[in-house]
């Protein structure tokens, strides 16, 4: 079983205010697979990732059969005083998707959480690898020697529910990350931008064929800048893919290819080049003509990503954050892109129509349901 002692790049240490945590013992580049681990303890689960009464009985039977060492390992994880000492600790197990199980790993389960925000965002992400039956921990940003390795316990995409409230409700802890501890006005401004962004996303495809495609591409650029400023770099892949689909629908292979390359390169960092998502994006970036809606809207030359988008998507996110902190407070780089295009900024707080609010709420509900797959027991 791989342990941190076999992975000289990381170490488990005490982190003030969070219990134990994992730090990098050397520089780790974005996209690097930090460690793959088979869970030390595996508990049964249903396919859905949720647990019903019968499932709980099976879990307690499995717990009763554990060795003393394994039970002590589980009890070494934190549990809020208000929670049941066993159920509270089961929350640290992560789903082994497709394998009807939840696992607790020696090292990866010690990785703490940080929220996506303009003030800081996770530098790593973990996923169950159904092929190797291991949990993969991957660097999604540069990690410097001595820096804590942090993932997001929430979805990697924008979320409607306020992160501190979600973490309190779902995991029972008060998050002390930079995003949660910033002044309420700053948090509110970010929440409003995310809300406006979430209202924009479901409309994109319905605009294809009805509106000027160059206008849609400009709007997508603004949304990508918001994502970069708010730290949601994974979701950039989705918007770049939307831009690809638009270009491919008009048969513009050159522009489409450039957009899909952004999508592919984000997948390489977050999911790895052995993931299905990366393989599809790689195929479309190479042969945009394979897109199912190729030339469905006719033939027209559109635009690839602007130099600013390429700079934002490819440069070190640390630099982007340091340089954009001031601009986020004042409406963000997205605001200045809008002015240079002479467009209203989608980044500034907007008043949502009833329909937009409804759509944003529906999306939020869906995301909350997806997020719930990340925990073992829902109370
Ligand atoms: C999966 S465990 C991570 C390892 C844990 N810190 C330990 O000591 O074993 C999750 C728990 O770590 C703590 N934690 C993780 N991220 C945190 C954060 N951003 N702020 C405060 N506590 C955090 C909480 O107690 C949470 O329930």
From TrEMBL:
SET domain span: 8-154
Name of the protein in its database record: SET domain-containing protein
Gene3D superfamilies assigned: SET domain
Composition skew (Basic residues), residue ranges: 354-366
Region (Disordered): 343-379
Pfam families: SET
Record InterPro entries: SET_dom (IPR001214), SET_dom_sf (IPR046341), SET_domain_protein (IPR053185)
CDD domains cross-referenced by the UniProt entry: SET_SMYD
């Amino acid at each position: 079983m791989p342990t941190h002692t076999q992975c000289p790049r990381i170490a488990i240490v005490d982190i003030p205010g969070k219990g134990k945590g994992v730090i990098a013992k050397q520089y780790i580049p974005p996209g690097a697979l930090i460690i793959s681990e088979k869970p030390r303890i595996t508990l049964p689960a249903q396919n859905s990732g949720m647990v019903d009464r019968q499932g709980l009985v099976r879990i307690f039977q499995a717990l009763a059969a554990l060795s003393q060492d394994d039970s002590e390992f589980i009890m070494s994880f934190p549990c809020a005083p208000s929670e049941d000492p066993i159920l509270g600790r089961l929350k640290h197990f992560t789903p082994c998707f497709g394998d009807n199980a939840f696992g607790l790993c020696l090292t990866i389960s010690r990785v703490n959480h940080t929220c996506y925000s303009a003030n800081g965002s996770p530098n790593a992400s973990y996923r169950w690898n159904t092929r190797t039956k291991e949990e993969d921990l991957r660097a999604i940003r540069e990690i410097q020697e001595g820096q804590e390795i942090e993932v997001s316990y929430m979805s990697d995409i924008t979320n409607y529910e306020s992160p501190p409230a979600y973490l309190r409700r779902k995991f029972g802890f008060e998050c002390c990350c930079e995003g949660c501890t910033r002044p309420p006005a700053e948090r509110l401004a970010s929440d409003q931008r995310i809300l406006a962004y979430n209202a924009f996303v479901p409309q994109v495809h319905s605009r294809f064929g009805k509106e000027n495609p160059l206008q849609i591409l400009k709007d997508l650029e603004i949304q990508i800048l918001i994502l970069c400023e708010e730290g949601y770099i994974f979701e950039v892949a989705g918007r770049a893919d939307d831009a690809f689909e638009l270009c491919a629908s008009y048969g513009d292979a050159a522009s489409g290819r450039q957009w899909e390359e952004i999508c592919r390169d984000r997948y390489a960092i977050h999911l790895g080049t052995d993931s299905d998502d990366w393989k599809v994006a790689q195929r479309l970036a190479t042969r945009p003509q394979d897109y199912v809606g190729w030339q469905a809207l006719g033939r027209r030359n559109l635009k690839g990503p602007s130099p600013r988008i390429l700079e934002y998507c490819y440069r070190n996110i640390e630099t982007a954050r340091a340089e954009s902190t001031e601009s986020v407070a004042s409406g963000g780089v997205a605001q200045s892109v809008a002015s240079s295009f002479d467009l209203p900024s989608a980044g500034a707080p907007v008043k949502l129509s009833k329909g937009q609010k409804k759509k944003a709420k529906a999306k939020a509900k869906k995301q909350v349901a997806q997020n719930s797959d990340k925990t073992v027991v829902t109370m």
